[in-house]
Amino acid sequence: MGAPAIQVENLTKNYGPVLAVDRVSFTVQPGELVGFLGPNGAGKSTCMRILTTWLPASSGYARLAGFDVMYESLEVRRRIGYLPESIPLYPEMRVREYLQYRARVKGVERSQRNIRIDYCMERCHIREVRNRLLGTLSKGYRQRVGLADALLADPPILILDEPTSGLDPVQIAETLSTIKQLGGKHTVLLSTHILSEVEKVCERVIIIDKGRIKLDESLRRISERKPTYIVEVRGPREAASAVLRERNDLIVLSERGIESDLTAFELQSRDGKDPRETLARQIIERGWNLRRLDVQRVSLEALFAEVVLRENNHSGSPAPAEASSQTHAS
Ligand SMILES: Nc1ncnc2c1ncn2[C@@H]1O[C@H](COP(=O)(O)OP(=O)(O)OP(=O)(O)O)[C@@H](O)[C@H]1O
């Protein structure tokens, strides 16, 4: 295998007394589509600015396509497309004119310029605004012009800082589908606040909080993590607890009284086998009632809650285990 597309080693950034990025290390292989997730102020934009050579690190290093961001910044810039969080556009320029200017700056061959511009406008759904002044565009269209700009020179690596910010739901769906199609051919590092976007588009997630990496795992492995079984039994609590704890194939993660004779248990299977049917039989055979028996798969939301929210929330309330359709991390 050649050089990783992105290699980050002990990257640290201080803004005066503020430690924004704290010894961050990760590697992204060519063609991977990685979600970079974290609450506000986690350090995502700072990392992305360092990776795109716009900001020097205080210590540590990063290499993109094998080139050092600090000492070989021109080589790095040639190989990346960057969509910053706020896009600096020239308000008096028209969309197509702006992309022509950007294609020139990026050194796209003259004979290829119009082909690339048309392709990127099509991909980013901005053909209909190609003659509009940038200053008159909505935030959603500005964002998509920024994405088209990032794609212009067909760079192998795309660094996208909140590409769906300001878009309406239809535009979000279109942009996510565009980004998904870019994976494989391009390496994509995508920062977002929205967990469901990562689930829809990415193969892997890196969660950063307070400048430190809290999780770096593929979504497939997350989905393969052992599920939790929720059982609510109406019957004598001590006896019900003893029956569940006697089973060698189960781990009782928690036990909580809901009413005087109603108890909720959180269980995990030791051997990976689904224990629901045997559990139901045991409970019914003893003449108790089974009010609830379900399985909760590990979701990104639950993991996010575990690694970020629980630590920040000193109330100690347990993390929710089920994903909602769209959850904002901040
Ligand atoms: N120029 C700066 N000067 C001082 N502190 C800064 C500067 N830029 C960012 N910070 C601080 O560094 C930390 C990380 O900020 P950063 O913008 O990288 O986080 P983020 O994860 O991108 O957040 P958001 O999602 O809100 O954009 C925050 O505490 C922020 O206040």
UniProtKB/TrEMBL annotation:
Residues 6-235 form the ABC transporter domain. It comes from the Bacteria. The keyword Nucleotide-binding applies. SUPFAM superfamilies: P-loop containing nucleoside triphosphate hydrolases. The keyword Coiled coil does not apply. Pfam families: ABC_tran. GO terms for molecular function: ATP binding; ATP hydrolysis activity. Keywords: ATP-binding, Nucleotide-binding, Transport. CDD domains: ABC_DR_subfamily_A. Belongs to the ABC transporter superfamily. This is ATP-binding cassette domain-containing protein. It comes from Thermogemmata fonticola.
